[in-house]
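Extended Data, record B12-binding domain-containing protein
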Amino acid sequence: MRNQVVMVYPYQGFSGTYVKHAPLGLLYATSEVVKSGYEVKIFDTRVISGDWRPRLQKLISEDTLCVGISVMSGSPINHAISIGQFVKSLDADIPVVWGGPHATFYPEIIVRDEWSADYVISGYASNSFNNLVDCIARRKPPDTVNGVAWRDGKEIRTNPDRQKTFEQIDYWDIPYHLIEDYSPYGQLDQNKRIFSMYSALGCPYQCTFCSSPAQYRPID
């Protein structure tokens, strides 16, 4: 039985050349998957010197249940497409799941336009991704999984994202151990290592270039 979930972080374009933070979004998204007993592997293409394909190919095996990709809008989209299509070239039966900010805002468009994306998850994903992984493992359609879009034959189906509050993930449940080496993360012009953390979710500001103000909750 396939039991391995591979999570991939694409190149981030120019913004990812100056400062590299650990891909905390992948850790948060897999917190429940790890607790459910699946084997999770993190693959960050930003810290790979040279071609990333041979390294990713070594992670993909007959035990791989699915591959998840966290996608920001902008230049990371093309790289996410390359990753998904490369996975399909290795094994067309491995489902590819898109998540992250771009997936949250354009789930149906991604499923419609990108053939290698089998599922797209909107919003906060730790619970919904875990439920989707369970459905994939049991070969059942994700009819009840929150915020998932997928192809059902020629039809695009979408479950609405009904989670309107921020996820609360206990610090001890965040699987920091999935990143084996934190040394590549830091700032380009400083010989200093960086360990990233989020102390809060959301943002009180209204910057026109940012999607964060689109999600908020009242002050308690």
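Summary. The longest strand covers residues 64-70.
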